[in-house]
Amino acid sequence: MRDHRIDARREAAGLGEPVREANALAEKLGLDPYPVNYWIVDYDEMNQLMAYGGFQHRYPHWRWGMQYDRSKKQSQFLGGRAYELVNNDDPSHAFLQESNALVDQKAVITHVEAHADFFKNNSWYRLFGGELDATAMLERHGDAIGRYMEDPDIDRGEVEAFIDAVLCLEDTIDQHRAFDTERSDEDDETPEDLRDRLDEMDISEDVRRQVFDEEWLDRLAEAEEAAARLDEPRKDVLAFLREHGKQYDADSGKAVEMEEWQRDVLDMLRAEAYYFAPQKMTKVMNEGWAAYWESMMMGEERFAGTDEFLSYADHQARVLGSPGLNPYKLGKELWEYVENTVNRREVADKLLRVRGITWRNLTDVVDFDTVQERLAPHPAIDGVTPERLDELAALGDDPRIDQAALDRAIATRDGDVDPDSDEAVDVDTYPWKVLTYEGLAERHFSLVKKQNRGFLRRIGQSELERLARYMFDDEKYDSVAEALADVDYAAGWDRMREIRASHNDVTFLDEFLTQEFVTDNHYFTYEFTHASNDYRVTSTDYEDVKKKLLLQFTNFGKPTVAVYDGNFANRNELLLGHQYNGISLDIGQAKDVLERIYQLWGRPVNLMTIVKELDDHDVEVARRRNREPTPTEVGKRIRYDGERFETYDLDPDLEDRITATDVDYDTKPDDWL
What we know:
Low-confidence stretches: 183-191, 662-673
Organism: Salinirubrum litoreum
Radius of gyration: 31 Å
Helix content: 40-55%
Pfam families: SpoVR (PF04293), SpoVR_C (PF24755)
Distance between the termini: 61 Å
Protein name: SpoVR family protein
């Protein structure tokens, strides 16, 4: 039987150089990643890590086994392969499967370096806390929950059932606010109806009537109910349940305080929900960012060797070509579009400053073929080879050239440096080493790439007018050639890093998805139609595509539910509200979740929502006329008391509170606006 440790050491020995050079290239390209520790694992270990979300230790629970089984079957029967696995930590930890080919390992490594840059520099990841040691945190949680399960005084089944209940609500947090472990002010405490306290005191009816007037008790209850109303819905449902939740005690028939282990488990799982929230919020941005820079390093900078390129191209085609809403493909295409539009704006800005060129005549008087030729990188920068190093040296003290690396490359070529020494620079393998960030930006300027050759000439009059509107120095250059010599080749990359620092998927799509992008990349919406009983393309308008996408990313694509009252109807009942945005709840699933919430509240729970009702006659008429029927939206309140469900019509004032006048995509904290 083979020793896995020997295989892992052998594999690791061959990856030292790719790891080192990928990090150096990433930094040359302007990335600033966390340090990354790479681990070699076998097939079974990789499936276990994937089940655990990229970590080696998690709390005991059946969900991990289910995810492990799914991952294993996917690779066995559907041909799926584990290419990348990296976690958000400082340092980050990435896992490489020992059975993968070297070219696949290189693809993972370059992809991971970009992820580590995103983790370190995106503001949403800093909302979770200060110094990040996620691996240690999750291991502590796993050990603590494991001890509760092994405690003879605690029923293991109760712990598992409690975890199940909390996990149903793991996305009902306020992911747009910094994680706070402190409990809220006592003003948020739900007041207790004094009648309940009197019942517990076992006071006689005579004494009760003499001392406590019923009318006074009614007024007190009304006042307490008003005080308990939340001015604003509480988005962090888990925090509210942590503060006010109880458990139902069957023996006494009443709600009693949670056990200490229950509050501890709830705290731990809530912290984990906040830790994983930024990754869910930036899936498209993050995967697109990693796919973009991986493609740059592996393909355009030849990190994949000549004999490896076809294999790598197949690797990337499978990743970008997977069906459904593909975050790698959508993200990469949108990042490339941002880069192109910023670079186009940079070139247009320079052209509009040429004497005699205005926003009205630019597209008529400018020869775009000549512009493309002049934007092409310097031949020696575009094709770095040992034979052309002297051309780079002739450029002198040029900011595009890494002079120290160039000197070592020339000495290596001329035999003055041992090619196997640390001082050697082999530009056949690593041409980027002799260039700086500015040189690489010129070498990879997006508008001169073949796939983007028509992007510049497609600039519209409205965009030119916007650029010229506040332009004062509009006769800065005497010729187009002089203007183009001033183009900042790094403009696109610089802007991409700014966007990477502050946006999440919702704001990213909202700001940068345009009609031009939708048309160029062939995006469209489709819906189930009652007229034909199947799915049909319904729109190619960018506003419709944007709305469809944003609905899938707002609140991780899950329904947004908040706490509206912790003492509903003055009965200590919990009132939750589904913030309706045109998408109805799956009522069956909603009832399942209410059963879990009851375990965390210990008293009846209510859920407000809006349902769409269709009249059968209207559906039939619409089908005959090949159009869609118009549903009626009706507010409902679903109540669960621990035994049965009841459904009520929703009061109009409550319906108004959960009905959005428009889909709310504003996910930036107030202090960012």
